[in-house]
Design brief:
mainly alpha; 3 domains; 3-stranded mixed sheet; 25 helices; 54% helix; 1% strand; transcription regulation
């Protein structure tokens, strides 16, 4: 046993720096940060592995999926006022202990940022209202926020290469953008107010860079606008969020006009350093396009826009594998195996997923996420196409000869119910199959990480949710109900529902119940694996209103649903009688009813379920009870109320204190609870 002394089994978390043991290696971009800075990072909210093993002799080891317990105290919302900006006293007057000589934020960079703050945020008579207090945080606090960004955000939004942080002069707008994002992960006293102030300072800086700083490099401008769009994603002002998206599009257009690609084929293979430098520039360009599109897409989803951004036609390949992107030297990059150096084409990957139902050879978390939303975008393109006038019409030589026939042609209605369209329904079903394939890969990564579910799994649940249910109608319904003061629990009826929601509950009930499974899975994920990312509050909110709508209105129309079920079953029996020979030849068809007898009558939506139970719930869930932890049966008044309370617990977590949109979502859910 002596050989096992000092041996420590640690989990390997791909694409994450969730657990840091020992000193940082020299290859990390964080190594240039001096330990003398005295920056202590609050790691209580991060998921920690249990050291408990069966060998400890406690009977059962600690679960690897145990939910962590961050602060859930309600957050004061006074600082969310859009016209009040100030860095809190505890931060702006903190003693600057210094960051050492090797910090990312040099004294020159700090002076530049503070000078911009004084110019844009403290002087009266300008375009913007001055901050309520002219004080600015210390250099040490800015370094702390930057460290939070590098540790908690950068591994999951790998947009800036490690070589970026080795430049002697790092552009101050990008530094400010990273600091603003990092401040949202801070949970010290006054952190929400500081996040609010940083967000406004960055917004003004972006506007100044677009309009006044003509000498700023355009790639730096796009990077800054992208970081600004991320910070404004959860702004309590929708105008600021949409303005940030518009600024990003403008900067991206200017950048693409001037970008010139240098083909790697024209560089001598012996010049490894030049090859690597050129490749890094091209890969950074590719990732800039991808992340800009992704943030724009998710912002459109969160605001309920009916038109989502299409894929950029200039994007031909997915980002490279993480192992190649994380290579810190030209020699490490050149020594990677051949399979890691291959480029993955977007069209090729979609062909493998859609047609062959197979996963591309090399697929990591970042590529998985991009493919997930590429499928969403493709399905939305089909939805937009089938709504076009004359979509089903094909030109013929006889066109115009028969006037009566021409008059009988009607354009496709804009408000048609999409699931009834065979073309759209086929694409949506195929998208679900693709998501299953991508989910299998994400689950294998989670198994390799000892159960830790990465962000790709949350994206897969959210993507299914937006395709399987009319979430825009749900958002509009909730907003309408919350605005009507006279609405009470007794007066909420199915008459408030739109046609899309009614059809979703009745005619599209299979997909409706499948969406409930993924809505519950989002609760499971956030409770255990939340990384406090900008899209999480929206995921919590949309899953909540989907579950609430189903639980409130299904009992009111259950009789109608059962009547539809009886009609479908009669039609199915008649079809089986007509094709009895085919039905008898199908393997396993005779055992289907026997298997259903083994399925429980209850499904717990926010706990992992085996696929057999999920598919049984999708197939005949109208006769099963849907429950959630802490709520019980969600179709009962008490269950609905507790469901909303569980949602508010998540939205009130301290990790979302800097997100104004999270507080807005919580306010809407609270109003629903008062009316339920």
């Amino acid at each position: 046993m002596s050989m096992l002394e000092g041996f420590e089994l640690t989990a390997h978390l791909p694409d994450a720096t969730w657990s840091q043991s020992g000193p940082l290696e020299g290859s990390s971009p964080l190594t240039s940060l001096s330990s003398s800075a005295g920056l202590s990072i609050n790691t209580a909210r991060r998921r920690r592995h249990s050291d408990s093993r069966y060998i400890d002799g406690h009977g059962a080891r600690q679960s690897l999926q145990k939910a962590f317990k961050p602060s859930r105290a309600p957050v004061e919302a006074s600082w969310l006022r859009n016209d009040v900006y100030a860095f809190p006293y505890s931060i702006s007057h903190a003693v600057d202990e210094g960051t050492g000589e090797h910090g990312f934020i040099t004294q020159h960079a700090y002076s530049t940022i503070m000078g911009q703050f004084q110019q844009l945020c403290t002087r009266g008579g300008g375009f913007w209202k001055p901050f309520d207090l002219p004080a600015f945080p210390s250099r040490a606090h800015l370094e702390r926020c930057l460290l939070l960004y590098l540790e908690l955000c950068a591994p999951h939004i790998p947009m800036l290469h490690s070589t970026f942080w080795r430049h002697p002069v790092i552009p101050w707008p990008v530094l400010l953008g990273c600091i603003a994002i990092g401040s949202s992960f801070d949970q010290e006293n006054g952190a929400p107010e500081a996040t609010h102030a940083f967000r406004e300072f960055l917004r003004r800086s972006v506007r100044w860079c677009l309009e006044a700083d003509t000498a700023l490099d355009r790639s730096t401008l796009v990077q800054t606008c992208l970081l600004n769009a991320v910070t404004q994603f959860n702004s309590s002002s929708d105008d600021n969020a949409l303005s940030a998206a518009a600024d990003l599009k403008l900067a991206l257009e200017l950048y693409q006009q001037s970008y010139r690609r240098q083909p790697l084929e024209q560089i001598d293979c012996s010049q490894i350093e030049l090859l690597w430098t050129t490749w890094v520039q091209e890969e950074a360009h590719k990732r800039l396009l991808w992340f800009s599109w992704l943030v724009d897409l998710m912002l459109s989803m969160s605001r309920g826009h009916y038109s989502l951004p299409k894929l950029n036609t200039r994007i031909e390949h997915l980002p490279c594998a993480s192992i190649r992107w994380e290579a810190d030297t030209a020699w490490d990059w050149n020594a990677l195996p051949v399979e890691a150096q291959q480029q993955t084409g977007l069209v090729e990957s979609l062909h493998w997923l859609y047609v062959k139902h197979r996963i591309p050879t090399v697929l990591d978390t970042t590529q998985n996420t991009f493919l997930t939303y590429a499928v969403v975008a493709r399905t939305e393109e089909v939805a937009a196409t089938v709504k076009l006038a004359l979509h089903n019409w094909s030109p013929t030589p006889a066109d115009g000869d028969d006037e009566d026939e021409c008059e009988s042609l009607e354009p496709a209605p804009q408000d048609q119910w999409l699931p009834a369209n065979h073309e759209y329904a086929a694409w949506r079903n195929s998208a679900c199959d693709v998501f299953d394939s991508l989910h299998f890969k994400a689950n294998s990564d989670a198994a390799a990480a000892r159960g830790f579910e990465g962000p790709a799994i949350l994206h897969l649940h959210l993507a299914r949710l937006v395709l399987l249910c009319p979430y825009r109608d749900f958002m509009a319904l909730v907003s309408n109900l919350c605005r009507q003061v006279s609405i009470t629990a007794n007066s909420i009826s199915a008459s408030h529902l739109t046609a899309n929601i009614l059809k979703w509950l009745t005619l599209d009930d299979h997909k409706g119940r499948l969406s409930l499974v993924h809505a519950g899975a989002i609760f499971w994920y956030i409770r255990r694996y939340s990384l406090a990312f900008f899209y999480e509050p929206f995921a919590i909110y949309v899953s909540t209103i989907v579950l609430w709508t189903y639980s409130l209105y299904l009992p009111q129309i259950r009789n109608v649903l059962l009547g539809i079920k009886d009609s479908r079953e009669r039609q199915h029996r008649e079809q089986q009688q007509e094709r009895s020979d085919i039905a008898q030849s199908r393997p396993g068809s005779s055992n289907e009813s026997e298997d259903d007898d083994l399925i429980p009558n209850t499904i717990l939506l926010d706990r992992p379920c085996d696929d057999e139970i999920v598919q049984a719930f999708v197939r005949k869930g109208h006769s099963m009870t849907a429950e959630m932890s802490g709520a019980g049966d969600i179709c009962t008044p008490q269950g609905r109320r507790r469901l909303l309370e569980e949602s508010m617990k998540l939205l009130r977590r301290s990790q979302y204190a800097g997100y104004g949109k999270a507080q807005e979502y919580c306010h809407l859910v609270q109003k629903l609870a008062q009316r339920t």
